[in-house]
Amino acid sequence: MERIFTSNATNELTEHVTYHRLAQMEKNPENREALERLSAQEKTHYEFWISLLPETEGKKIRARWYTVWGLSFLRITLGVTFMTKFLETHENDAVEKYQSIAKMIPESHRVRFARIIEDEKSHEKALIGQLKEKRVAYMGFIVLGLADAIVEITGVHAGFLGVTGSTLIAGVAGIIVGFSAAISMGSASYLQAKQNTEQSAVLSGFLTWVSYFCSVILLALPYFLIHVMIPAFIISTSVGILLVAGFTFYGAVVFDRKFWREFSETVGLMLATALATFLLGTIVGALFHINPASF
């Protein structure tokens, strides 16, 4: 029992310090206030758990500093909204764990314990819901560029499997098509964002173009490093699946979506497109008597 209380105290102290650290990094006053309130709330939870421990054991509790600094570093690239919601996913597990040990809590502490469970269930979500971050507003444009590039360029590479045995040609074709498509997608995002006064149309178009073309480069790279078509295609497709997993996980955390459903749908669309373009490439190659082994 004491070990369970120690573990809970350590978790709550780590989250208290993490939220405080994130608040120190935050420039937006409203976000900083919400994070400080979260930090203060986690501190009261920590104090509850150490109140159930012998004084000597309570003094030994330390925050997991590798977690604090690791999450603080990730906040720079992934944003405060992602990091707080990622921490919240742990809270869902904490509620179930706390409820399972309710009988271990002394009668004199059960009112405070009930408040902690209520905090974990709703109050913290309300505070996190107050966070505002510009990068989240533009996340849709970045995901649009990534998703479209992965589906389209994987399809281009698959189509060339039936036409050429040259990885150089397949890689160059992917970059040329991708560059043109990136401009097209960026232009479409620019026009779309002009209808929304809360977002910069130029930045929206630029982010779509950048995310699209960066995906194109990553997907084409295996064709320049590996000079056999099938292995190059497999590695390129694997890179695409990893990219899908990355942005789907980010979106699932930030927007409270189902990861596996969105991931499977996007990967399914990508592979279906690759199959369709491979069949088309094979048919076109046969119609024009193109021998992939010699071209």
Give me the secondary-structure topology:
Layout: H1 2-25, H2 29-51, H3 55-58, H4 65-78, H5 80-100, H6 110-128, H7 134-161, H8 167-193, H9 201-225, H10 229-254, H11 259-287
Describe the structure.
By secondary structure, this protein is mainly α. The chain has two domains: 2-128, Ferritin, CATH 1.20.1260; 134-294, no CATH class. It is 81% helix and 0% strand. The protein is built from eleven helices and no strands. It has helices at 2-25, 29-51, 55-58, 65-78, 80-100, 110-128, 134-161, 167-193, 201-225, 229-254, 259-287. Helix 1 (2-25) packs antiparallel against helix 2, helix 5 (80-100) packs antiparallel against helix 6 and helix 7 (134-161) runs antiparallel to helix 10 (229-254). It is elongated. The N and C termini lie far apart (71 Å). The model has no long low-confidence stretch (mean pLDDT 86).
Give the key terms.
elongated, 11 helices, 2 domains, Ferritin, 81% helix, mainly alpha, 295 residues
Biggest sheet layout: none
Considering DSSP H and I runs of 4 or more, what fraction of the residues is helical?
A: over 70%
Indicate the proportion of strand residues. under 5%
Total of helices: 11
Number of β-strand runs? 0
Low-confidence stretches: none
The number of distinct structural domains comes to 2
Overall mean confidence score, pLDDT = 86
Q: What sort of overall outline do the alpha carbons produce when their principal axes are compared? A: elongated
